Amino acid sequence: MGMHKSETLPDVTYWLALEIAKVDPVVDFEAMHKGSLELDFLYQLLTAKVQQHWWQQHGIKLNPVVVNNAFFRAVAMLHNRNIEFCRSRNAEETVWVKELLAGNNQKP
Description:
Helix content: over 70%
Largest sheet: 2 strands, parallel
Oligomer: single chain
Number of domains: 1
């Protein structure tokens, strides 16, 4: 069976990001970014799950450093995406869309 390859990090990061996004209830990225029990729980759960998945699907034993880096990269990526989404919702560029949608809901 193989060991990890350097190109595995982006794949593992992506896989973990998808798994984090599936969590219900929705993950509070602000709390996770600062550290929380939720973060610790997800870390333990998903790092074990990703290692098992990679071993079963690809025959690759992931290096714990790769798994650790991938997990925190995934959290950071999702946190940054959430920040950008919140910023764009209140940006000037989206105000006209909100006004347009509000105008379509009004009856003459």
